Structure formats: structure tokens, C-alpha cells
């Protein structure tokens, strides 16, 4: 016999509520009523309803809600004062959201759930998105049992949730992080972030952010804005600015990042779309400071918030219940775009740290990204920057950069999984994969629209052509860095001899060519603007190229070795320029320097051994 919907309505009176019991309450102990007196053995058959009615008569007085006698040992884990208060709150007309009903979402509220509906829900395997009390979508798999609720996740149990409006100021003051708004300075940092950091992966839509910021300042809540996100953006922009120690007792980037973390701790009670964006930017900040573990943890938190919000699930059905100023389709598009931005950041951060990316291994049904439309861009470096707008064709091309970058990220996830799994795997399978993936990357390059093409074989722009956009330059740098990572494991014996296959020779040449291409792109970027304005990802890509140049300069004689020496010099200079924004670039320099010292020491040792062998042979001939 199934219980009806009314049987589980926790907003009923105390008498009705405590008159309810399970159809089968069979514990291995003597059965007692709520006052501790012996009660009849419950019956799971036809007599269960009369027993329930008798059971209810012992709890008619609300003052008797406290458990006494032997029953207290059974229910001593329940705080009945809190529970009684919850029941009273549930009866208030002003709290309709506290009514919890167990029924299928599509069922008529005036009808009992049928056996088939309950069975279907009980045996379900696929989850859906639910709308929590705060209006945010939440993802719960069927193993959580919360899919048994209706469309809303409203229950009597309401854990305390802090808000940034009411709880942040005291915490910021205690931490010495009070900030008196300075619109001019904030606009400067916003412009730096949205000019140099955001266009590459497009983690934050500028228009949506400022629209949400305006709504928040007027007392409304918006999914696409949060104080944590605002301060994370200010921190990101501050990395490209000259430190102002006159108003801060630390670097501006650290100051705003610290503020973002205070807000973040509050927002994690009920994270939103903007919270996930803030986590991504904080991960980038920590990586820029060389705090790899912190950055990696923030990337992991971002991945968990994404699944908490169900961004890995593509469905417009639940989105129509969100009361936003956007249609369900628009919201789904925003969620899809950010999912792929987060996926891209997660994969390339994983490559940078040599760790498996969480989002690369999650099941999802999010469609591949498409162009985000026209993206106007101008090289802002500070007040008075020249208003050089990109052309109409370039604006469309820039809107497509994140989609092409996400395509590279998907391929990088496969490269990391199959070539760098962390455990032993078949070399033959790896070789076959490298050959196949190399073809895929070449096809990716060939499919780029004309406005995204760059000739990376020379360090200058051909006469009569405009300098390429800095964002496009970095897209090509990412491609060549991946080419190196794909073929680097197969760089073995480079001198033709028996037993050396074409793949070894081809891999060595491909790595050298891509390292040269990255060097050329760095020089093109330098003529366009300063190296301090490159995206953080360029630090890793430059280090990858520098290591190959070290290898070539210490391995190949003649012109090839000299060219590698020149490429190494450019990489070292570029990393020094990037250090103005990213402290972690100095570690890239240290990696290159360490590899060079080791290679030179090996060369000297081999040369010394060769001289000793020659001297020994000459001495033997004289004897």
C-alpha cells in the first residue's frame, strides 16, 4: 500500500504530522509510542491504517512533542526543539516554499501518485536539474534520492546561508581589506582585463557582467554578477597595471584577489554562475603567482560548481522556470559558452601543471561551441590609449577564437590522456595515436578562416599586410605548443642509422619547426605590443618552445644549432617581459636554464671523454 501525497505533507498540524508512520516500522526492539509506552506490533497488511490512527491519539497535545522513555534512545539524534519550530514555521502563510511534497514533477497536485509513476521515479537512472529555494538550478543525480521531489527543492530543512550583502563587510574590515570605491581606477582595471585576458577564452561576457553589476547595485540579484567575480576581474586587470603601493599595502592584484576570496567563502554557501567564473579567474591569479597547488584547487572547485549548477547538462526544460531577463535559450547559450571556456582553462591548466583535468573526464552532453559573434577590440593600456578598432572581418574572426581554442582543448585532452597518462602504456598505440592526431591538428589549422591565418614561418609580417591581432597570435602559439607536446615523446635518435624509423626523424623536425614558429610569433607579438600583455597561457607555451631550443642548440651543429640559440634568446627575453605581469614566468626561465646547464655539462663530459680516449689511443700507438 503506497502512502498518499498528504501522508508526506510536513506542513500539516502537529497532531496530523505525528500521526503519520511508515507502513512497516519493524525494528528489532520493543515498540513504544511517542511517550514511551508499549504499543501494538505494527501490521503491514490491511490493519496498518487503524494502527496509525490509534498511534496518533497519543500525540494530540503539542506540548508532548518531547520524547521520553525508551523511545528517546531510538530518536536521540533528533533535536525536537528545532523540529517543532520548523513545523510551526512551515504553517506560516508567508513560507509557502517550505512545503515538501513527494510526487512526480508532472503529476497533478490534487491526485495521488500512481504506482507506475512511483515505480518509474524509483527506477530512474538519469538525473535532471532542480530549482532550489534561491532560484538557482542544482544538479542532483538519482542516487541522491532528491529526484523523488517535485520541481522545487523546498524542504523544512533549511541550512543557514550567508549573503554577500549582509555578511561580507564585517569580514572584509576584519581582514583589513576595506575598499572605498574609485570608479575611475576600477574602470581602468576592468578595461585591462577585458582587453588582454578575457578575449582569449572569453570566460566573462562583458555586457552581461556590467548589466548584472548594475542590477546588484540597485538591490537586485543577478546570476551573471557577484562581488567575488567583480574583485577577481579587478585582480586580473591589476596584473597588467603598474603597482600602486601608495594606496595598498600589497600589490593591487593580491589586494583584490584577497577580497574576492572573502566574498567567495560566502558565495559557496549557494554558488551561482558568477561564482564559477570567479573561481576560474582566481585559479589564473594563483597560477600567475606560481602558486600551482592553490590554482589547481580553485580549478577543481570551479569544476565542482559547474556540476553543482548542472552546466554539464544541456536542457532547456528546467531553464524556463528561472525568473531571469533572458529566455531559456539565451541562458542555455550562456551556460554552454562558459562550460567550454571552463573546459579549455581546465585542460590547459592541466597541461601546465602536468595533471589530469577534471572537466576533461566528465560525462556531458553540451554541444560544441560556436562563434560568439562580432567582438570589437582595441589595444587599451591606460587612459589615452589609441582608439584603434579592429575591422569588421577581424571582429567576426575574434568571436570565433574561443570556439577554435576549445577544439584545441579537446585534442589536448586526448593527448594528455593517451600520451601522458601517468602510468605505463603501449608505445605502439602511442605512435599510432600521434600520427593520427598530427593529421587532426593539421586539418584544424587548414580549417581556420582567412582572418585567423598567420604566417609563422617568419618573424615579421609580410609587406602590405596589417599586424595580426594579439589574440590570434596566441591562438597559433597554442597550436604549435600542442604540436611539440604531441611529438616530443618520440624524439630519440635523430642521426639516421639502422633501427631509426621515420617517426623519430619526423617528430624531431616537427618539434623544431613548432619551436621556431612560437619564437617568430613572440617577435610578431612584441612589435604589436609589450610582452607583459600576453595571456597567462603564453608563459607555458614559451617555456615549451625554449626547452626544444635548448635541446637543438646542444644537439645539432651548424646552422640549425645557431638558429636554436637565437630562438632560445628570444624565449628568455619574452619570459623576462612576461614577468612584469606573471611571476611564474621566472620559473619557466629557471626550467630552461636548468636544462641548458645539464645539456652543456653532458657535452663537456662527452668532449672530455673523447679527448681522453684520443690521448690514450695516441699513447698506445707510441708504445
Description of the structure:
The chain is mostly helical and 623 residues long. It has three domains: 1-102, no CATH class; 164-361, no CATH class; 393-609, no CATH class. It has helices at residues 14-17, 48-56, 71-74, 80-90, 115-122, 164-174, 183-201, 206-217, 227-238, 252-267, 273-288, 292-308, 328-353, 392-419, 427-446, 470-487, 502-528, 537-555, 558-578, 585-622; strands spanning 128-131, 137-140. Strands 1-2 form a two-stranded antiparallel ribbon. Helix 7 (183-201) packs across helix 9. It is globular. InterPro entries: Transcr_Regulatory_Elem, XnlR_reg_dom. This is Xylanolytic transcriptional activator regulatory domain-containing protein. Pfam families: Fungal_trans. Residues 107-117 have a biased composition (Acidic residues).
What would the keywords be for this entry?
single chain, 623 residues, mainly alpha, 3 domains, two-stranded antiparallel ribbon, 2 strands, 1% strand, disordered N terminus
SSE layout and pairing:
Elements: H1 14-17, H2 48-56, H3 71-74, H4 80-90, H5 115-122, E1 128-131, E2 137-140, H6 164-174, H7 183-201, H8 206-217, H9 227-238, H10 252-267, H11 273-288, H12 292-308, H13 328-353, H14 392-419, H15 427-446, H16 470-487, H17 502-528, H18 537-555, H19 558-578, H20 585-622
Antiparallel strand pairs: 1-2
Helix pairs in contact: 6-10, 7-9, 9-10, 9-11, 10-11, 11-12, 12-13, 13-14, 14-15, 14-16, 15-16, 16-17, 16-18, 17-18, 17-19, 18-19, 18-20, 19-20
Intertermini distance = 108 Å
The structural class is mainly alpha
Following the backbone from N to C, one meets helices and strands in this order, namely: HHHHHEEHHHHHHHHHHHHHHH
Mind telling me the C-alpha Rg? 32 Å
**Multimeric state of these chains?**
single chain
In helices, the fraction of residues equals: 40-55%
Q: Which sheet architecture does the biggest sheet show?
A: 2 strands, antiparallel
InterPro entries: Transcr_Regulatory_Elem, XnlR_reg_dom
Biased composition (Acidic residues): 107-117
Organism: Exophiala mesophila
Protein name: Xylanolytic transcriptional activator regulatory domain-containing protein
Amino acid at each position: 500500500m503506497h502512502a498518499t501525497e498528504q501522508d508526506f505533507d510536513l506542513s500539516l498540524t502537529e497532531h496530523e504530522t505525528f500521526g503519520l508512520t511508515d507502513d512497516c516500522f519493524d525494528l528489532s526492539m520493543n515498540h513504544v509510542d511517542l511517550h514511551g509506552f508499549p504499543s501494538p506490533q505494527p501490521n503491514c497488511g490491511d490493519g496498518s491504517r487503524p494502527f496509525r490512527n490509534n498511534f496518533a491519539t497519543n500525540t494530540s497535545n503539542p506540548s508532548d512533542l518531547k520524547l521520553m522513555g525508551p523511545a528517546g534512545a531510538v530518536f536521540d539524534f533528533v533535536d525536537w526543539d528545532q523540529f517543532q519550530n520548523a513545523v510551526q514555521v512551515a504553517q506560516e502563510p508567508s513560507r509557502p516554499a517550505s512545503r515538501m511534497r513527494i510526487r512526480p514533477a508532472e503529476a497533478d497536485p490534487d491526485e495521488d501518485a500512481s504506482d507506475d509513476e512511483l515505480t518509474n521515479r524509483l527506477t530512474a537512472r538519469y538525473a535532471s536539474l532542480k530549482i532550489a529555494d534561491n532560484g538557482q538550478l542544482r544538479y542532483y543525480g538519482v542516487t541522491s534520492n532528491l529526484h523523488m521531489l517535485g520541481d522545487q527543492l523546498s524542504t523544512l530543512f533549511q541550512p543557514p546561508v550567508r549573503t554577500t550583502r549582509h555578511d561580507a563587510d564585517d569580514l572584509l574590515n576584519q581582514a583589513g581589506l576595506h575598499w572605498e570605491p574609485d570608479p575611475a581606477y576600477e574602470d581602468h582595471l576592468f578595461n585591462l582585463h577585458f582587453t588582454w585576458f578575457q578575449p582569449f577564452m572569453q570566460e566573462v561576457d562583458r555586457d552581461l557582467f556590467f548589466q548584472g553589476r548594475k542590477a546588484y547595485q540597485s538591490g537586485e540579484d543577478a546570476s551573471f554578477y557577484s562581488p567575488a567575480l567583480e574583485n577577481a576581474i579587478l585582480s586580473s586587470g591589476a596584473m597588467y597595471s603598474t603597482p600602486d603601493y601608495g594606496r595598498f599595502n600589497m600589490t593591487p592584484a593580491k589586494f583584490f584577489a584577497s577580497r574576492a576570496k572573502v566574498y567567495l567563502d560566502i558565495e559557496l554557501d549557494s554558488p551561482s554562475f558568477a561564482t564559477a567564473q570567479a573561481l576560474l579567474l582566481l585559479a589564473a591569479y594563483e597560477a600567475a603567482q606560481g602558486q600551482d597547488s592553490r590554482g589547481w584547487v580553485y580549478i577543481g572547485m570551479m569544476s565542482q560548481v559547474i556540476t553543482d549548477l548542472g552546466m554539464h547538462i544541456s536542457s532547456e526544460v528546467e531553464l524556463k522556470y528561472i525568473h531571469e531577463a533572458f529566455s531559456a535559450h539565451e541562458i542555455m547559450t550562456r551556460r554552454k559558452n562558459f562550460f567550454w571556456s571552463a573546459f579549455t582553462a581546465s585542460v590547459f591548466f592541466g597541461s601546465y601543471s602536468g595533471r589530469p583535468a577534471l572537466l576533461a573526464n566528465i560525462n556531458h552532453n553540451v554541444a560544441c561551441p560556436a562563434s560568439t559573434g562580432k567582438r570589437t577590440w582595441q589595444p587599451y593600456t591606460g587612459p589615452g590609449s589609441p582608439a584603434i578598432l579592429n575591422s569588421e572581418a577581424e571582429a567576426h574572426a575574434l568571436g570565433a577564437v574561443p570556439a577554435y581554442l576549445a577544439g584545441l582543448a579537446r585534442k589536448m585532452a586526448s593527448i594528455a590522456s593517451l600520451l601522458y597518462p601517468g602510468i605505463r602504456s603501449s608505445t605502439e598505440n602511442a605512435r599510432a595515436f600521434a600520427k593520427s592526431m598530427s593529421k587532426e591538428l593539421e586539418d584544424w589549422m587548414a580549417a581556420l578562416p582567412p582572418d585567423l591565418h598567420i604566417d609563422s614561418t617568419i618573424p615579421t609580417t609580410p609587406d602590405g599586410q596589417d599586424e595580426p591581432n594579439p589574440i590570434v597570435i596566441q591562438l597559433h602559439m597554442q597550436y604549435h605548443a600542442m604540436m611539440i607536446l604531441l611529438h616530443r615523446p618520440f624524439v630519440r635518435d635523430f642521426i639516421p642509422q639502422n633501427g631509426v624509423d621515420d617517426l623519430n626523424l619526423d617528430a624531431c623536425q616537427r618539434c623544431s619547426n613548432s619551436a621556431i614558429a612560437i619564437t617568430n610569433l613572440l617577435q610578431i607579438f612584441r612589435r604589436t605590443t609589450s610582452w607583459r600583455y600576453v595571456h597567462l597561457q603564453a608563459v607555458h607555451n614559451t617555456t615549451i618552445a625554449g626547452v626544444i631550443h635548448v635541446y637543438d642548440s646542444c644537439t645539432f651543429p651548424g646552422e640549425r644549432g645557431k638558429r636554436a640559440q637565437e630562438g632560445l634568446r628570444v624565449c628568455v627575453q619574452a619570459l623576462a617581459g612576461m614577468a612584469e605581469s606573471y611571476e611564474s614566468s621566472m620559473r619557466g626561465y629557471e626550467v630552461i636554464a636548468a636544462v641548458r646547464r645539464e645539456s652543456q655539462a653532458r657535452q663537456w663530459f662527452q668532449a672530455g671523454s673523447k679527448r681522453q680516449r684520443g690521448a690514450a689511443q695516441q699513447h698506445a700507438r707510441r708504445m
